[in-house]
Amino acid sequence: MSVPTSCRNQEGVALVTVLMIVAAMSAVAIMLSSAVLASTNRAKALDASAQADWFAKGAGAFAQVTVDQLVSESGAKLFAGMPMLAQPMAFEIEGGVLSLTGREASNCFNINSLRQSPSPGREDTGEEPAARKDFIALLEAADIDGVDADVATATLVDWMDADLSPELGGAEDSYYSSLTPPYRTSGQPIENLSELYAIRYFDPSLVEQLRPIVCAYPDEDQQAFNINTLGEAQAPLLSLAMSGALTSEAARDVIFQRPQGGWESVEDMMATPALAQISPELRRTDMLSVTSSHIGVRTIIEYRGLRRIYDQLLVVDETGAVKPVRRERKG
Ligand SMILES: [Ca+2]
Fold first, then answer.
1. Ligand 1 (single-atom ion) residues, CB below 5 Å
2. What value does the mean pLDDT of the chain take?
3. What are phi and psi of 250, to 5 degrees?
4. pLDDT number for residue 55
5. C-alpha of residue 151 to centroid of ligand 1, in Å
6. Which range marks the domain in which residue 195 is found?
7. CA 328 – ligand 1 centroid, Å
8. What's the pLDDT at 120?
9. Euclidean distance between CA atoms 46 and 40, whole angstroms
10. Distance from the alpha carbon of residue 184 to the mean position of ligand 1, in angstroms
11. Are 121 and 207 in a shared domain?
């Protein structure tokens, strides 16, 4: 017995409908599984990120304890090539690796010292502040191309001072507000060297040349330089401490000839022929030391596909205690 044509047509329609429902259900199932997968990956990434933050906190505390131990064992007499400064300390963690690298951070001119009032500790005599004279001398010793040391210093002072009257050659809000986009001076100490890019005349070339010899610390004091960790790029600092009587090139030679393990004392270093011939009143030995007051630690955490970089600045106070003063995420 043959099936009527209308029945066959109805079966065909039902089959197509079923196929369409199956196709739609499959599409929904695929969408749901993609959404679940994306949400699982996101949850995993968030979990890894939270865990990396905990590792960073732990590493920060560990770095402080390690530096504290290093300082108490050595009396803060850090020298170039000592283990913590020469190579990173790496630790395997479940799912990754964590490394800590120490860095001498005392060997730099603290540009926030330019905020000091004239002749610190004395009455304002109208004299140019000592820190400003030093910064001008440093820029000259560093022989930075195409920069007028007086103008660059005046502009930097104007950026940080609270008033709105420009120094000779400097720049205040009246200059920055004419730029596109306009902005204003901070009137505050420099927080990070990258802020220098915003200041008139401080182009990337100048900032890069300054990086090895300047820093921006929360206090306005100038710390002594550690003669046993000075790098050759920091030779202008030694030239400054010798009141310019030693050229940066000659200072580089002195640093290059430093004995293994460093000098015992600043006096020992002064016995070096190149320094011994400099008149004693030009040798500002109070700017030099065999100990470190500022130590930086970089922590790199590589964990489940994440990479985190943190920089920490630790200060050794007069009692020898190590205190964290700044911590920033670099990447
Ligand atoms: Ca000013």
1. 158, 161, 163
2. 90
3. -65, -35
4. 86
5. 13
6. 111-212
7. 29
8. 43
9. 10
10. 12
11. yes
pLDDT digits over 37-92, tens only? 888 888 888 888 888 888 888 888 988 998 999 899 989 999 998 877 878 889 89
Residue 290 has pLDDT above 90, yes or no: yes
pLDDT of residue 82: 84
Q: How many residues does the chain have?
A: 331
Say if residues 312 and 326 touch (Cβ distance below 8 Å). yes
Q: SS3 breakdown of the chain: % helix, strand, coil, rounded to 5? A: 45, 15, 40
Contacting residues for 104 by C-beta, under 8 A, at least 6 apart: 78, 80, 85, 226, 229, 292, 294, 295, 296
Q: What pLDDT was estimated at residue 77?
A: 92
- Amino acid at the residue 180: T
Q: Are residues 165 and 187 in the same domain?
A: yes
**Of 166, 182, 212, which residue sits at a domain end?**
212
Q: What is the dihedral of CA 114, 119, 125, 127, to 10 degrees?
A: -50
pLDDT at residue 123 above 60?
no
Domains identified in the chain, total number: 2
Residues 284, 285, 286, 287, CA torsion sign: positive
Q: SS3 of 266, please?
A: helix
Distance 70 CA to ligand 1 centre (A): 42
Residue 76: CATH number of its domain:
3.30.1300.30
